[in-house]
Amino acid sequence: MNRNMVIIFAITAILSILTRIASNHTGSVMGDLIFGILRGFTIAAFANIVINSVIRIWERFRQSFYKDEAYLTHTLPVSKNTLYDSKTLSGLGAILLSLAVVIACFFIAFWNNDIYEYFRTVFKDGDMTFIVFGIFVTAVLEAVYAVNVGMFSLVVGHRSNNARVLRSVILGVFLYFALQSLLLGIIYGLGMFDDSIKAMFGDASNAVISFSTYRTLIIVTDVIYLVLTAALYFAGKKLFTKGVNVE
User: Fold this and answer.
1) What does pTM read for this prediction?
2) I need a labelling partner for 43 at 20 to 30 A (CA). Which of 18, 215, 244, 245 fits?
């Protein structure tokens, strides 16, 4: 594991503990101020872990296959399929670890009976274990999807002879938001047949989602992410095995 990520994990854990301590001393102006500041820093730290992890995976992919390290990587006695798979699996491991740290720190910093009751209200008659697990699985699949968008875009972008990084970035941003819009459109379409899903696009404060609807949303979302990720993975792998244009 990268030393910088260990430091980031440690800082996030410390912020989470401090946020929990501060949450027990609210009620005064100073107490509320300190809690608000720590809460903001902690949430920012959560986002930093995920974004930093994804960017580092992309950068390691680029360094290993297209920069100076590529001359050593491509002389290894293994197939390009194996090389691509190894980076995909290492990226998956990094994402799982990062999200596990974020989830653990979230529980340390923020989880309480009020949040529990909020989930119980929004997802009426729901199994809380399934709800939390479902959110975690979807977050993992979304992050893995983002990683594969970046890897595929890097493979396509580096097949050009110039502006490779720029081409990769433009393609990656376009693919990510285009496919996310497709997912959102599918969920919106489901709302035509389910009023509780449709309510999600209205006043969120009044939204109450039945457990069966939530389960349907989770399954549909996860299946879409799996299909999109698989398509990007196999397409990127196929292009990668056709040849690599090292910088």
Assistant:
1) 0.80
2) 215
Cβ 47 vs Cβ 12: under 8 Å: no
Inter-residue long-range contacts of 234-239, CB under 8 Å, 24+ positions, other chains counted: 235/152, 236/84, 236/148, 236/151, 236/152, 236/155, 236/156, 237/81, 237/84, 237/85, 239/152, 239/155, 239/156, 239/159
Helix, strand or coil for residue 210? strand
Q: Which residues lie across from 123 on neighbouring strands?
A: 209
pLDDT score recorded for residue 153: 92
Q: Where are the domains of the chain?
A: 1-110, 112-247
Phi-psi region at 96: left, alpha or beta (left = phi > 0; alpha = psi -120 to 50): alpha
pLDDT tens-place string over residues 189-206: 877 776 666 666 665 555
Question: Which are the contacts of 228, defined by CB distance < 8 A and separation ≥ 6?
Answer: 145, 179, 183
Beta carbons of 185 and 174 less than 8 angstroms apart: no
Cβ distance 213 to 194 under 8 Å?
A: yes
Whole-number Cα distances in Å, 29 to 33, 34, 38, 49, 179: 6, 9, 14, 30, 45
